Recover the amino acids of this structure.
């Protein structure tokens, strides 16, 4: 057990609240090249889960010719165990708007949207008030980049970027084939940057503090800090902003209840790390990446129940268009039930592990591809719990 | 323009299963492999439709890539190294097919698609005998919609490839079928899961033609027809539509584009039909009636300046189109020609004129038609189609159903000798033959109308009016200046008759919208519900795609050229029926037997 | 043809007739009626020049775009594992006992519908639920009792 606590960071929520959009106004005076340079230098990678380098995404979109482009803030936050985007949007919305506006300038977009999950509709009145303020401000400085809000209606898959575009277009949230990527064909088929809520805030803070400051935080693969949503068997659940690249054992020391048996990193689509691997696990793009969800489980919990809960989640939240995911999720859930009830031999679990691997290889989008993460990490590490 | 050309000229080099291949930029891995004659299995992919990429059976291994891309949805890129049959691919593909089977009610021996089903084919190819996974069928509350006279939809055999949904939306612009719900509950559904007969479905059968499994099939009447044939008290008459004779061979193992008219006639006789007649006969009759109807309307408009005359006039021989306009543009029903389709004219005449001439009691006649079309099944069941006093057409079979009957009878189709249609309603012209393709009715009508009005043959080399020959994927427009007319048609002197030809309901919708918005001032519009016209009908052999339609179309024009008579008004049997039975075109009897009216229906 | 519903016309006028307006329009209907009837869908389809099946397809995709009649107050209890671990079941039980309905049902007086839903984003304060759009977290049987009583008297 180490005695130093994990360093708390205050980039996202505190430090500077951007009340008067000063950083935005200053940044708008810089050239696009300078901004991109700074972003590239900072090493910022997307906070929505996939971790794509933000500077590259913006640059590609900026390079795609086209009059009509869009900036979209992904606030669909549906990953079980994640609630940080809600906090960010309710506490520092102006930082988010500013980040989006900077993006709009860099890529040449004249319209931004926030796609807010339906579960967060209660945020709307406040958010609209804030947005009115922003839109007024933008007008006052001659910035042609209004931001609007679109609501989701209870579909986790709409957090997937291409499903999100479909949803905004009034269709079913079925992910598209890739390529083409959003940088060339996104919302309405136009070049689009889509970033997570937190990513936009990071951009703004990099603009304010400079890339060097930002780079001081985290590791070489995972620059900066991250807002973690901590839940489950912990005495201190909540939102914490921590440096990326921390070892999991130190996290558990601080947040566990002394009896932590496993941590699910990255929500239902993330990985389950058992106690024996805490020490060797790094939280970050070089180790186990996370959109922020950290669920702790102590030894009183049945990992079968945990997995079963996740599989039901995927079964319902899959868009259902592609075979491996639509049918695979049903088979995995039904399969572990059959093993538990001894209707199938425990060897059937190996069959299911292979199936989950095929799902990872063949599913059309990240949802189906990531079911195997929790499935294999839970089944492999807690096999007895699956059988008895 | 220059730019796009440059882009298509860009070449991509890749390696598939160790073989290097060079393709145009934008080519998918699937097409690149096909170029090398490497066959990657597919299910959701269809040449006519946009790429969905949802079944995932076409996955391949790409070196250095994390996952297995779907070859139908992934463009080739420079230096790609692809394996189509690696260990990983084989296992994953087997998993996928097993998954599909696990939610599938796979009692193939009871299934109409047994033997030609794409899922079954894939399962047998991959030897998926071991049922790796649990049976999910009991978990699903699958329903079967059997309430329709033309199409049956059985969800328990659906693999959710969405071909039908894309067909109905992209090709037909109808979207009677959609995708509903999500996840494990995702299904193909009409509005609020109403039966098909209650919604805007046109019965065109394009979805049926593209469904890889037994989930969407035509309602078949094979047994009923056999029963009639074996009933000694019945005189069973069969008519065959123009587009059947150039496609039937495909259902019996022959390559596309073969003209099999003679063999088809022989086969029908051997099946036991009492008379084998030709819908071409009433196609010619349609031209006379419809041509005269057009002239009458033009006269009213140009000479009498009657403000109530409905122009443009629309053709009415495609029942899918009829149901479409009844739902979608009911305010234009007056513009439809009142002519029945050739099938229904035939049916009405068989139980009147034919019965009289052959001295048969109409109640003992069973009239069967072989059609490239599923909508004709619906049409035959319309209440207004009983002008003979009986159901004018008792049973409608598709080209595919006839193929099945021929197989059931054990006939070696390719080896059959060639015979001629029976006489009396069995003679045909080139003009009738081309009814089977888009633009054909227009061309046939113009061949006749021009001659009626001017007394001269239409001034096109070899009577081939190529400007109106429809093409797929576009609305064809043409105009014809009428000069040196006969005195009684003076009002037409110098008039430019403007025509349009559209095939596929999505294009029909476009034309109609233009007409509605007053953007188009045509006189005459030919519309066929199916892509390419009847030759691409919903009842035609599976597969049907653009290449195959092109071959069928060539066969039709070939057949036209080979006919001794190529103008409807020269059909001797047509001349005879006017003399003996009908009197003149648009006469009283015609109205009673050959014309009909339409029913406005709800679009929503 | 469906009879004209003023609120549909209003929504369409407000959001526009492009397909991109479909979600906001459907959400507007939910806000008003808690469910979207076949008639409403038909009318929306007509206004947006879509087929009804397309509107139905979009509506049924989203959990919150209900197509069956629902109560005035739709209660959605989070069933994600963290809420489950912290007593979701007793919360559901309490509501079931109070309203005499099971999950998935609507009370006979059409006032309440009880549903379960996936993660609501209150995992640190689970169990959580939504009543219409209003979130409640840190639920205990007592707390739920008070909340539901209050709604019963609304
Ligand atoms: C099933 C699924 C759900 C997702 N949900 C979210 C989400 O709720 N919020 C989010 O920002 N990204 C989500 N993503 C990732 C997005 O597709 C996309 O990568 C991200 O918004 C990009 O932003 P970033 O580069 O800032 O991370 C999801 C991806 C998948 C496959
Ligand atoms: S992986 Fe799942 S969510 Fe993604 S496209 Fe396929 S079915 Fe839809
Ligand atoms: S649809 Fe195909 S696989 Fe299914 S029962 Fe019919 S023939 Fe068999
Ligand atoms: S009905 Fe046929 S075409 Fe339509 S999704 Fe099902 S299997 Fe595919
Ligand atoms: S028959 Fe035609 S209109 Fe009807 S569902 Fe099929 S494709 Fe659509
Ligand atoms: S054929 Fe390629 S995904 Fe279905």
């Amino acid at each position: 057990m180490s005695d130093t606590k994990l360093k708390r960071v205050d980039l996202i929520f505190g430090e500077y609240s951007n009340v008067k959009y000063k950083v935005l106004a200053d940044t708008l005076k810089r050239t696009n090249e300078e901004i991109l340079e700074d972003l590239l230098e900072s090493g910022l990678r997307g906070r929505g889960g996939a971790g794509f380098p933000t500077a590259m995404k913006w640059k590609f979109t900026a390079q795609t010719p086209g009059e009509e482009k869009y900036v979209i803030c992904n606030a669909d936050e549906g990953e079980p165990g994640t609630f940080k985007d809600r906090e960010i949007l309710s506490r520092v919305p102006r930082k988010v708007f500013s980040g989006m506006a900077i993006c709009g300038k860099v890529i040449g977009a004249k319209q931004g949207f926030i796609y807010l999950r339906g579960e967060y509709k209660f945020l709307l009145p406040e958010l609209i008030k804030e947005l009115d303020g922003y839109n007024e401000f933008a007008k006052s400085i001659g910035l042609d980049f209004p931001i609007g809000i679109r609501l989701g209606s209870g579909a986790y898959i709409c957090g997937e970027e291409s499903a999100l575009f479909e949803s905004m277009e009034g269709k079913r949230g079925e992910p598209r084939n890739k390529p083409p990527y959003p940088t060339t064909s996104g919302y309405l088929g136009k070049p689009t940057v889509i970033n997570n809520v937190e990513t936009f805030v990071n951009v703004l803070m990099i603009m304010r503090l400079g890339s060097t400051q930002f780079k001081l935080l985290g590791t070489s693969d995972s620059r900066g800090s991250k807002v973690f949503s901590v839940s489950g068997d912990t005495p201190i659940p909540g939102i914490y902003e921590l440096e990326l690249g921390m070892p999991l054992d130190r996290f558990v020391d601080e947040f566990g209840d002394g009896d932590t048996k496993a941590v699910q990193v990255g929500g239902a689509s993330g990985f389950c790390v058992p106690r024996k691997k805490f020490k060797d696990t790094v939280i970050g793009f070089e180790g186990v990446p996370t959109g922020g969800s950290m669920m702790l489980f102590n030894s009183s919990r049945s990992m079968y129940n945990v997995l079963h809960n996740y599989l039901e989640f995927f079964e319902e939240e899959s868009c259902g268009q592609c075979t491996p995911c639509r049918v695979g999720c049903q088979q995995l859930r039904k399969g572990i039930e059959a093993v538990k009830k001894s209707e199938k031999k425990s060897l059937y679990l190996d069959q299911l592990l292979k199936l989950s691997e095929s799902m990872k290889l063949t599913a059309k989008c990240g949802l189906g591809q990531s079911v195997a993460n929790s499935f294999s990490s839970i089944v492999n590490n807690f096999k007895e719990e699956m059988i008895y | 323009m220059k730019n796009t050309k440059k882009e298509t000229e860009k070449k991509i080099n890749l390696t598939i299963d160790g073989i290097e291949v060079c393709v145009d930029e934008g080519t998918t891995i699937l097409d690149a492999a096909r170029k090398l004659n490497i066959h990657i299995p597919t299910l959701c992919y269809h040449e006519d439709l946009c790429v969905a990429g949802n079944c995932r059976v076409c996955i391949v291994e790409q070196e250095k890539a994390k996952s297995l891309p779907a070859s139908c949805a992934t463009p080739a890129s420079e230096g790609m190294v692809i394996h189509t049959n690696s260990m990983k691919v084989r296992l994953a593909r087997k998993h996928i097919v097993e998954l599909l089977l696990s939610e599938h009610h796979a009692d193939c021996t009871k299934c109409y698609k047994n033997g030609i089903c794409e899922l079954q084919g894939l399962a047998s190819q991959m030897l998926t005998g071991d049922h790796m996974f649990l049976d999910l069928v009991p978990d699903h509350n699958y329903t079967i919609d059997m309430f329709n006279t033309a199409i049956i939809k059985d969800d328990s055999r659906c693999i959710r490839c969405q071909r039908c949904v894309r067909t109905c939306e992209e090709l037909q612009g109808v979207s009677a079928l959609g995708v509903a719900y999500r996840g494990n509950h995702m299904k193909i559904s009409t509005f609020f899961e109403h039966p098909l007969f209650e919604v805007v479905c046109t019965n065109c059968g394009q979805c049926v033609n593209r469904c890889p499994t037994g989930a969407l099939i035509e309602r078949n009447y094979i047994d009923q027809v056999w029963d009639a044939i074996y009933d000694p008290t019945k005189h069973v008459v069969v008519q065959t539509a123009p587009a059947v004779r150039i496609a039937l061979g495909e259902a019996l193992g022959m390559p596309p584009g073969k003209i099999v008219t003679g063999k088809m006639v022989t086969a029908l006789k051997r099946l036991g039909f009492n008379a084998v007649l030709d819908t071409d006969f009433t196609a010619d009759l349609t031209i006379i009636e419809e041509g005269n109807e057009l002239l009458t309307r033009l006269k009213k408009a140009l000479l009498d300046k009657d403000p109530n005359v409905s122009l443009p006039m629309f053709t009415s021989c495609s029942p899918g189109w009829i149901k479409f306009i009844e739902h979608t543009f009911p305010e234009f029903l007056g513009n439809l020609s009142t002519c029945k389709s050739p099938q229904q004219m035939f049916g009405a005449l068989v139980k009147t004129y034919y019965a009289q001439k052959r001295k048969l009691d109409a109640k003992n006649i069973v009239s069967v038609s072989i059609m490239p079309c599923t909508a004709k099944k619906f049409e035959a069941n319309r209440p207004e189609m009983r002008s003979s006093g009986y159901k004018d057409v008792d049973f409608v079979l598709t080209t595919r159903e006839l193929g099945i009957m021929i197989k059931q009878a054990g006939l070696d189709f390719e080896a059959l000798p060639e015979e001629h249609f029976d006489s009396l309603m069995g003679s045909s012209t080139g003009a009738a033959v081309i009814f089977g393709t888009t633009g054909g009715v227009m061309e046939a009508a113009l061949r006749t109308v021009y001659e009626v009005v001017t007394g001269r043959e239409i001034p096109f080399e070899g009577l081939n009016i190529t400007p109106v020959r429809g093409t797929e994927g576009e609305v064809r427009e043409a105009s014809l200046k009428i000069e040196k007319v006969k005195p009684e048609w003076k009002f037409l002197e110098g008039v430019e008759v403007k025509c349009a030809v559209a095939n596929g309901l999505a294009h029909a919708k476009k034309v109609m919208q233009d007409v509605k918005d007053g953007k188009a001032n045509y006189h005459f519009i030919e519309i066929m519900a199916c892509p390419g016209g009847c030759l691409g009908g919903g009842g035609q052999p599976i597969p049907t795609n653009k290449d195959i339609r092109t071959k069928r179309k060539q066969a039709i024009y070939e057949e036209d050229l080979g006919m001794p008579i190529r103008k409807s008004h020269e059909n001797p049997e047509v001349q005879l029926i006017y003399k003996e039975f009908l009197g003149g075109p648009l006469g009283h009897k015609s109205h009673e037997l050959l014309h009909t009216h339409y029913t406005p229906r709800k679009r929503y | 043809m469906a009879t004209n519903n003023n609120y549909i016309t209003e929504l369409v006028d407000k959001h526009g007739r492009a397909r991109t307006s479909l979600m906001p329009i459907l959400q507007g209907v939910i806000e008003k009626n808690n469910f979207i009837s076949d008639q409403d869908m038909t009318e929306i389809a007509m206004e947006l020049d879509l087929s009804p099946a397309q509107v139905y397809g979009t509506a049924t995709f989203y959990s919150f775009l209900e197509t069956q009649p629902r109560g005035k107050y739709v209660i959605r209890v989070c069933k994600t594992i963290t809420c489950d671990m912290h007593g979701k079941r007793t919360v559901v039980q309490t509501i079931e006992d109070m309203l005499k309905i099971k999950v998935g049902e609507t009370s006979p007086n059409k006032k309440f519908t009880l549903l379960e839903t996936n993660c609501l984003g209150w995992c640190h304060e689970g169990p959580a639920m939504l009543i219409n759009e209003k979130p409640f977290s840190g639920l205990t049987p007592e707390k739920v009792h008070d909340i539901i009583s209050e709604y019963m008297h609304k």
